[in-house]
Amino acid sequence: MAEAEYPAVIGVVAAGKLLGMGRTKAYRLAKTGRFPCPVLRIGSRYAVPVRGVRALLGYRDTHECREHWKG
């Protein structure tokens, strides 16, 4: 699967789960600007660029990321 097939952004809850936090904490950190990677505010929604989550988790290439997304 090519890198372009991954979503560019994911929800703050999904990003929080990947980082080991629950829904409430993810929203609280996003709202206060303390989420551990960049968060975009789009209207009333929060979106987290996948690139930021991958960098935070230490992925250096698409193979490592692909294995993680497979579960």
From TrEMBL:
Taxonomic superkingdom: Bacteria
Gene Ontology MF terms in the entry: DNA binding
Keywords: DNA-binding
Protein name: DNA-binding protein
